[in-house]
Amino acid sequence: MKNRLEEILKNIETETSQIKKFLKKTFMKYDRNNRRNDINNHYNEDPPSILEENNRSNLLHAYYRYIWNSNFSSPIEKNLHDGANVIDLGCGSGIWLKELSSEYSNSNFIGIDINEMFPIEKIPKNLKFIKHDILDGIPYEDNTFDFIHLRFMIKCFGPIEWKTLILPEIFRICKPGGWIEIMDLDTNLYNVGPKTENYSRKINSMLGPSKIDVDQLQDIMNIYQDLGITIMKEKINAWYPFKSQNSDKPFEMTSEILNSLYPIMSKVLNLNQENYAKLLEQILEEVAKNKTYGKTYRIITQKLTL
Ligand SMILES: C[S@@+](CC[C@H](N)C(=O)[O-])C[C@H]1O[C@@H](n2cnc3c(N)ncnc32)[C@H](O)[C@@H]1O
């Protein structure tokens, strides 16, 4: 009788553990799918093609590199020449990594993204891309990377995810003495005229709700401050001709970026190509007259040495 009871109890235990495993797997899958849908739902209309999306990311990359006159602000140049481990989280089209891996051939570069938008052309040998959801953790050992980079990722996670998951994971995989750089946009536009404001409001609504307020950048800074040395740099992104630099480049690039948004914005605004071009002309005139600008930030932190 005792043996029989023990056998039944053992069976129940095995079954319970199997049920638990099954439920965990199902919930994880459900959660992951929801997250992917969340990302795709960013576009209320049909999501743009990967090629369109990558072209636009590459244009934005060129614009911000021009504005900052660099691809990063952390004092890591020498390490990159000597040989460092670098990771870009939420790397998108991978353009930032492609440029750095070509320039610093002694270093190793890894890009992670939940969506596979990685370059299809030949990539340098020291560059690798991985499709992975970083909310499932970052699949590397503690103290692996000399430089961790994230750009335009702030809205992808909510405050709790940043505090309890993303930042602890980033600090875990960063080597003591390594650098972490988060670059992001202030979503406000300054000196903005009515046509430009309406257009930018439409872009923001098309992108869907942000999971974090701009003010929460300060929260992230505070957490950083507790964990390491933090510097915040700010740049003005002029949309208008930048006369002080005697250059029309920001204006030309702004115009190119707005043009590249045609496949998405024409649907949102219900405009054909001709009318979209007319609207852009009016917006660019307004931008030049008002001297419209935005701001980007780079939050740079060094993980304290043990
Ligand atoms: C606004 S894009 C920025 C892309 C790139 N960092 C850049 O500067 O061009 C945000 C990127 O984060 C990726 N992403 C969002 N949530 C993610 C997650 N949980 N895990 C990995 N990648 C994620 C998206 O697929 C997208 O490529």
CATH architecture identity = 3-Layer(aba) Sandwich
β-strand amount: 15-25%
Q: Quickly count the domains.
A: 1
- Summarize the biggest pleated sheet: 7 strands, mixed
Mean pLDDT: 80
The CATH C-level name is Alpha Beta
| Tally of separate helices | 10
Query: Which cofactor or ligand species appear?
Result: S-adenosylmethionine
Taking strands numbered 1, 2, ... along the chain, how are they ordered across the largest sheet? Answer: 3-2-1-4-5-7-6
Encode the helix/strand succession as letters.
Answer: HHHEHEEEHEHHEHHHE
Taken from the alpha-carbon principal axes, the silhouette is globular
Number of strands: 7
Distance between the termini: 59 Å
The helical percent reads 40-55%
What's the gyration radius in Å? 23 Å
Give the class from helix and strand content and strand pairing. alpha/beta
- The CATH superfamily name is Vaccinia Virus protein VP39
Low-confidence stretches: 16-45
Write down the CATH topology.
Answer: Rossmann fold
Question: What does it look like?
Answer:
The chain has ten helices and seven strands. Mean pLDDT is 80; it is low at 16-45. The radius of gyration is 23 Å and the shape is globular. It has a single domain (54-303), classed as Vaccinia Virus protein VP39 (Rossmann fold), CATH 3.40.50.150. It is an alpha/beta fold and 306 residues long. It has helices at 2-41, 50-68, 77-82, 95-103, 159-173, 194-207, 216-227, 249-260, 262-269, 273-290, and strands spanning 85-89, 108-113, 127-131, 145-151, 174-190, 228-238, 293-303. GO terms for molecular function: methyltransferase activity.
